[in-house]
């Protein structure tokens, strides 16, 4: 899932011409995807999916709107959510079900201030069992040094057209940073919600934002991502079980555009 929206304020602040960007490359083989196995496909039931990233052996970071039923506004049943780490052509490096789900308490969906809401489009999944594999290491998150205009970033995602194989866009650029949201010239499509936006920090890639939506600028596609400013609060909510939901009640079916 990925929400197509028009954010006039952010788009008005962006440069007239976006810098050249790399083309997303499908990682068809295990060798091509080496180092990115912590990124996985989130199976949400009913044929819907998002992207998520393992940030601890038992924690997956994604977008809040992937974990909220649009019809009811409630957190989806964890029993219907599965994380398929390194999913490629019908096989996963590791497969885990969700035990708990937490979304940013300030997230209220596509209502009111779109930019303000998008800055809270963050969710965490607590897995039923940790993933502890030498070949599958969690990705680190850097919430302290957010990228700004002109900074290069990259994205690893599953999306429409490559739902069975991850794609890496190794180089795109931040156009605007505004109120906890990045506007980027990275390519995004349905299913890319929750994808980790990466930047090099200390010689290694770290997650600096989470893909939230796509938009258009002068007829060209752009994307928007939420900065993980209050990841500690989200972890605390998940640990406290505040967003835990009973399983077995049936999964939510998403009908996002």
Element order: H for helix, E for strand: EHEEEEEEHEEEEEEEH
Number of helices: 3
Q: Count the domains.
A: 1
Main β-sheet, spatial strand arrangement: 9-10-11-14-13-12
Main sheet makeup: 6 strands, antiparallel, barrel
Task: Indicate the CATH architecture.
Answer: Beta Barrel
Domain Peptidase S1: 35-213
Keywords: Signal
Protein name: Peptidase S1 domain-containing protein
GO molecular function, one term: serine-type endopeptidase activity
Structural account:
Helix content is 8%, strand content 37%. The chain has one domain (3-240): Thrombin, subunit H. Residues 4-18 and 245-257 have low confidence and may be disordered. The chain has helices spanning 8-13, 114-118, 231-240, and strands at residues 3-4, 25-26, 39-43, 49-56, 59-62, 82-85, 94-103, 123-127, 152-159, 162-178, 181-184, 196-201, 204-217, 220-226. The chain is mainly β. It has a six-stranded antiparallel β-barrel. It is built from three helices and 14 strands. A hairpin with an 8-residue loop joins strand 6 and strand 7. The chain starts with a strand and ends in a 17-residue tail after the last helix.
Give the helices and strands, then pairings.
Blueprint: E1 3-4, H1 8-13, E2 25-26, E3 39-43, E4 49-56, E5 59-62, E6 82-85, E7 94-103, H2 114-118, E8 123-127, E9 152-159, E10 162-178, E11 181-184, E12 196-201, E13 204-217, E14 220-226, H3 231-240
Parallel strand pairs: 1-13
Antiparallel strand pairs: 2-10, 3-4, 3-6, 4-5, 5-8, 6-7, 7-8, 9-10, 9-12, 10-11, 11-14, 12-13, 13-14
């Amino acid at each position: 899932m990925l929400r197509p929206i028009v954010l006039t304020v952010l788009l008005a602040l962006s440069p007239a011409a976006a810098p050249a960007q790399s083309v997303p490359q499908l990682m068809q083989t295990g060798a091509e995807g080496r180092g990115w196995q912590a990124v996985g496909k989130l199976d949400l039931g009913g044929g819907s999916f998002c992207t998520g990233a393992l940030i601890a052996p038992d924690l997956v970071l994604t977008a809040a709107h992937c974990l909220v039923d649009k019809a009811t506004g409630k957190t989806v049943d964890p029993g219907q959510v599965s994380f398929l780490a390194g999913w490629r052509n019908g096989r996963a490096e590791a497969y885990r079900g969700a035990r708990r789900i937490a979304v940013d308490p300030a997230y209220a969906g596509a209502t009111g201030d779109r930019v303000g809401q998008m800055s809270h489009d963050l969710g965490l999944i607590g897995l039923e069992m940790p993933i502890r594999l030498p070949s599958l290491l969690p990705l680190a998150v850097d919430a302290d040094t957010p990228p700004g205009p002109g900074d290069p970033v990259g994205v690893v995602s599953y999306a429409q057209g490559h739902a069975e194989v991850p794609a890496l866009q190794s180089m795109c650029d931040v156009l605007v940073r505004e109120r906890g949201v990045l506007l980027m010239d990275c390519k995004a499509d349905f299913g890319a919600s929750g994808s980790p936006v990466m930047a090099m920090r200390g010689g290694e890639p770290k997650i600096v934002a989470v893909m939230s939506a796509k938009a258009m600028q002068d007829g060209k596609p752009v994307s928007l991502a939420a900065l993980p400013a209050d990841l500690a609060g989200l972890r605390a909510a998940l640990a406290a079980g505040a967003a835990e939901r009973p399983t077995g009640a049936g999964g939510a079916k998403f009908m996002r555009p």
